[in-house]
């Protein structure tokens, strides 16, 4: 009797495992063909970052899109990496139509074959996009522009008569006494910190070693690295940190809240990039998704997006007037488009090294 | 009371054997009913727990080289146990879980004792109070702690303005912070399981101890404490295994400074998309937790106080 039960159990387990073979990304091309159900679609599912991006889409863009095209937008919030993981898991039966990623994840999604190629004739607004924001040509469109840059609390700096920050290397100073808010390496802002420290010290994405050495020093003068913006923003707002590296939209939001912050474009330059929208490979409502993507980069939508503190991604368009003072870029400011392809290749290696070599240095030189 | 006569005894014996045979006949039927009643739960657990866990186990034995090459191997496990970073993270996880167990036991036991001794009305109120933190999501509670404990935050300012200290201890982004958060989250489980076993102690045992000359301390140490061991053991096991697998608290309150294993596994899977290695980490965590919990319960059940567990 017992044996029979065991036999039944084992056979069920074996059956459930037969369904899985060694996951081999090459087989993705055999996935079910793109459905053309886009024609009569009445709703699409969009996954994107929570917070500011979610609000901009839910409250402003989606209602207008629905009014114009009669297509309802369901928004699923999540971090870029989480969305990419889900899209990868669902690659044989995609649930999302449009996925928002940070540029690095656009690159990774593209490398893994998880994005649809966009045809410029079906996305006519792509013509007007500023190429500096584009991650991979014809794969997704940039939507929410930003720079990742240092910012500091001007009140504290004036009080202590500290020299203003002008270089990435100025982020490393014993005087800050641990009152810094830098993101951990797994976060986009953290990785930006690493390669910009490398840039400022004779390195590059091909050689991050100088950046890693500098980062060790930076860690020794910091109490911690923060996991994400949800942790960093209250720390800066409450005055637990006077120095930070953040996305410009977050800096703008803090300044809006009355925090005396100043964003700096260091002399070595700061990376310019954008949260980008991609159409998921074999998306259930592909055509509707393409319409939505095109709508996101229309002048009207970009105007609204600029109002929420992002840089518009269209040529000839400027930051919203109310943000001109806080995050507006001057012609003399050096901003650059990072090499995301290279970044995707080296990300793993340097994330490991950061965790093993930089993180243990945290707080070592902070005076108690 | 009348003495039992011989034929009565015969009758009793006969009756009891009849019951046994009748029971045997009914047994198979009982199994079917039990099976039917259990089926929905078993199916649910099998579908939503066992199969996904098996899939993760299967993933953990796959090694990937580059984007296209995947093969079966135990490489993920070898990597884990040969890399000091992950071993340190494992040790940190165990250490923090043990601290959490000790803190919640020390804080929880007196509360449980109070609950056992007080009147039913007060006990009801206390139970409600103890369980009330469970009504709020752990994310919200920990974020509240996070805002309070931030350097320069409310707690620091309070300590400074009361003149207790000029340089407050580092409460956030440290092991202390994580232990505070975890004990806060899991204390109700410890209290409730200890209290349940205290309720079951026969009060006359304490009277007997007092009659035999034991003072309150001695009576607690030799009677109440040993008899509450089953509750302590289940509380310890609960709190320890939940602490081992906690993600939210270490991620929020530990920052990058306290890389406990669940956080490391999450980072591997979500940020580096290394599904297979993350799966292996999860299984190492599961295995170590199971081994430690088994050894602990075995030791308790076979030890000096084994009678208590019968």
UniProtKB/TrEMBL annotation, chain A:
- Signal peptide per UniProt: 1-21
Q: Which UniProt keywords apply?
A: Signal
Q: Which InterPro entries match?
A: SBP, Sperm_putr-bd
What name does this protein carry?
Extracellular solute-binding protein
Xref: CDD domains:
PBP2_polyamine_RpCGA009 (cd13589)
Matches recorded under PANTHER family: ABC TRANSPORTER SUBSTRATE-BINDING PROTEIN (PTHR30006:SF2), THIAMINE-BINDING PERIPLASMIC PROTEIN-RELATED (PTHR30006)
Automatic annotation (TrEMBL), chain B:
Domain of life of the organism encoding this protein = Bacteria
Keyword Plastid part of the UniProt annotation: no
Residue ranges of every copy of the ABC transmembrane type-1 domain listed in the record: 90-296
Q: Where exactly are the transmembrane stretches of this chain?
A: 31-58, 90-112, 124-140, 176-199, 219-240, 277-296
Q: Where in the cell is it found?
A: Cell membrane
InterPro entries, alphabetized: MetI-like, MetI-like_sf
Q: Which CDD domains match?
A: TM_PBP2
User: What membrane topology term does the record carry?
Assistant: Multi-pass membrane protein
Q: Could you confirm whether the keyword Transmembrane appears in this record?
A: yes
Q: In which family does this protein belong, per the annotation? A: Belongs to the binding-protein-dependent transport system permease family. CysTW subfamily.
What name does UniProt use for this protein? ABC transporter permease
Q: Which organism is it from?
A: Geobacillus jurassicus
């Amino acid at each position: 009797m017992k044996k029979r039960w065991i036999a039944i159990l084992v056979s069920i387990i074996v059956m459930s495992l037969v369904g899985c073979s060694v996951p081999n990304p090459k087989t993705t091309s055999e996935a079910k063909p793109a459905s053309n159900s886009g024609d009569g679609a009445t709703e699409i599912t969009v996954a994107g970052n929570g917070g500011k991006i979610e609000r901009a889409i839910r409250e402003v863009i989606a209602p207008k899109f629905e009014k114009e095209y009669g297509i309802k937008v369901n928004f699923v919030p999540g971090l870029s990496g989480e969305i990419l993981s889900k899209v990868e898991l669902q690659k044989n039966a995609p649930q999302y139509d449009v996925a928002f990623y940070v540029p690095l994840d656009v690159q990774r999604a593209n490398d893994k074959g998880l994005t649809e190629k966009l045809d410029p004739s079906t996305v006519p607004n792509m013509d007007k996009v500023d190429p500096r924001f584009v991650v991979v040509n014809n794969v997704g469109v940039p939507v929410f522009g930003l720079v990742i840059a240092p910012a500091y609390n001007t009140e504290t700096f004036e009080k202590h008569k500290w020299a203003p920050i002008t270089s990435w290397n100025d982020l490393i100073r014993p005087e800050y006494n641990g009152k810094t808010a830098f993101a951990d390496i797994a976060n986009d802002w953290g990785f930006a910190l690493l390669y910009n420290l490398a840039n400022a010290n004779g390195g590059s994405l091909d050689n991050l070693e100088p950046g890693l050495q500098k980062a060790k020093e930076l860690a020794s003068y910091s109490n911690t690295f923060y996991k994400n913006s949800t942790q960093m923003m209250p720390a800066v707002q409450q005055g637990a940190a006077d120095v930070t590296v953040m996305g410009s939209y977050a800096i703008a939001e803090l300044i809006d809240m009355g925090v005396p912050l100043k964003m700096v474009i260091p002399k070595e330059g700061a990376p310019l990039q954008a949260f980008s929208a991609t159409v998921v490979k074999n998306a259930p409502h592909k055509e509707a998704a393409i319409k939505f993507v095109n709508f996101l980069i229309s002048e009207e939508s970009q105007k609204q997006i600029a109002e929420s503190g992002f840089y518009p991604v269209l040529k000839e368009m400027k930051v919203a007037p109310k943000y001109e003072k806080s995050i507006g870029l001057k012609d003399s400011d050096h901003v650059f488009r990072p090499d995301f392809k290279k970044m995707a290749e080296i990300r793993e290696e340097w994330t490991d090294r950061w965790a093993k070599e930089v993180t243990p240095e945290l707080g070592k030189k902070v005076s108690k | 009371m009348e003495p039992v006569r011989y034929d009565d005894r015969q009758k009793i014996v006969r009756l009891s054997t009849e019951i046994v045979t009748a029971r045997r006949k009914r047994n198979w039927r009982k199994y079917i009913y039990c099976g039917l009643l259990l089926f929905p739960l078993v199916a649910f657990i099998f579908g939503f727990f066992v199969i996904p866990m098996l899939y993760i186990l299967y993933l953990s034995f796959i090694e990937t080289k580059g984007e296209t090459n995947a093969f079966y191997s135990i490489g993920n496990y070898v990597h884990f146990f040969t890399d000091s970073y992950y071993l340190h993270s494992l040790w940190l996880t165990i250490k923090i879980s043990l601290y959490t167990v000790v803190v919640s036991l020390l804080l929880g036991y007196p509360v449980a004792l109070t609950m056992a001794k007080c009147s039913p009305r007060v006990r009801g109120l206390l139970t409600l109070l103890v369980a009330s933190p469970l009504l709020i999501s752990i994310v919200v509670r920990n974020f509240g702690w996070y805002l309070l404990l931030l350097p320069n935050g409310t707690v620091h300012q309070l300590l400074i303005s009361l003149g207790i200290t000029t340089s407050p201890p580092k409460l956030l982004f440290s092991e202390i912070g994580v232990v505070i958060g975890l004990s806060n989250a899991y204390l109700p489980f410890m209290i409730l399981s200890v209290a349940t076993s205290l309720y079951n102690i026969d009060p006359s045992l304490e009277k007997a101890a007092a009659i035999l000359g034991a003072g309150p301390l001695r009576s607690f140490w030799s009677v109440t404490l040993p008899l509450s061991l089953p509750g302590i053991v289940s509380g310890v096991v609960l709190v320890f295994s939940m602490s081992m697998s906690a993600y939210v608290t270490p991620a929020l309150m530990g920052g990058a400074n306290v890389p406990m294993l669940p956080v490391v596994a999450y980072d591997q899977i979500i940020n580096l998309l290394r599904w297979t290695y993350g799966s292996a980490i999860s299984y190492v965590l599961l295995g170590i937790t199971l081994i430690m919990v088994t050894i602990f319960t075995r030791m308790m059940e076979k030890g000096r106080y084994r009678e208590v567990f019968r």
